[in-house]
Amino acid sequence: MNKVILMGRLTRDPEVRYTAGENAQAMASYTLAVDRRFRRDQDAEADFIRCVCFGRAAEFAEKYFHKGIKILVTGRIQTGSYTNRDGVKVYTTDVIVEDQEFAESKAASDGYQSSAPRNSAPSSQSAGAGADSLDGFMNIPDGIEEELPFN
Prior knowledge:
- The chain has a single domain (4-114), classed as CATH 2.40.50.140.
- The chain has helices at residues 56-64, 106-112, and strands spanning 4-10, 15-18, 26-35, 46-54, 70-83, 89-102.
- By secondary structure, the protein is mainly beta.
- It is built from two helices and six strands; from the N terminus they run E-E-E-E-H-E-E-H.
């Protein structure tokens, strides 16, 4: 089984290209900085992992992802190689994205990335009742416990 789950922050805005031809398809690539769980001598360490997505997922990344945002990615590892201009064989390892989603609220992301220029992103708050929380999560009204099926 080849399955990868990553959570990290984008190191830069996604790079998006479109295939040529009649049925052009988007391809986005971005690098995630993923913190290592165990740290030696309390020094922060991270791995920088290149992720690639296609089609609607690439268009979504182009529209809503930006440098510094924290996302969750699931996909598979794909290795490859090519020969560069100098005749040297270069090996690659990428995560081919199957699913991607936001890993923090818009307010938390804004707090983390308050000074950087950003693309516009949709509000994480819904128009439903109780969606007035500043952290992007819906408030549950008091006294609703009796109506919840998982008490």
